[in-house]
Amino acid sequence: ITDFGIGNGISIIIFGGIIARIPSQIVQTFKLLQVGEIGILPLTSLLLISVVVIGGVIAIQKGQRRIPVQYAKRVIGRRMYGGQGTHIPLRVNQAGVIPIIFASAILLFPATIAQFFQNLAFMKSMSEALSPGQPLYLILYAVLIIVFTYFYTAITFNPANMADNMKKYGGFIPGIRPGKNTTVYIDHIMTRITLSGALFLAVIAILAIS
Questions:
Q1: For this UniProt entry, which segments traverse the membrane (predicted)?
Q2: Please, are residues 103 and 141 in contact by the beta-carbon 8 Å criterion?
Q3: How many distinct structural domains can be found in the chain?
Q4: Would residue 123 count as lying in a domain?
Q5: Which strands, in side-by-side order, build the sheet including 171-172?
Q6: Are the C-beta atoms of residues 161 and 186 closer than 8 Å to each other?
Q7: Closest Cα to residue 204, out of 57, 43, 11, 46?
Q8: Lowest mean pLDDT among 42-56, 75-89, 97-111, 193-207
């Protein structure tokens, strides 16, 4: 899916699984509404919160920090090249949903192991503490998502290569010297916006299981 340019393959597969459950969830919600187990006001509030969350996810996913880049003029033969301006789009959420998948897998492992030793008080307590929705689980979940967001971004995004390519083709960021200074500047910007994306990703993931 990713290779054919349709989109992020992992995200689309996860999205398909979520969409497949929506019809049954809608039917179940209306049944609860008919029998009076859920009121109009809570249902309306839930819908409004869902719309706000979806809007926030779209905004973060599409959000990017654009770093201006200027290319120096070069004369090759009798023609002049360069002198044009462009930008480097740095995505706020560079890692996508990968951090959530990794965090869920890691937290699932100790809880699964603990279930085989329920006769031990320590293991039983750990299994209960690491159950989805518990305070310890939510804290570790958020921390792991933030850590993996930075980890995955560091693997997939290389500011040094970007700075070298810019320097090779005569590009530079206004006010920043080409080379190492450009690398440090891009890395600093990416670190700041990644924190925003990681925190938002952690909040959305926690809301989904709370």
A1: 40-60, 97-117, 137-157, 189-209
A2: yes
A3: 1
A4: yes
A5: 85-91, 64-71, 171-172
A6: no
A7: 57
A8: 75-89
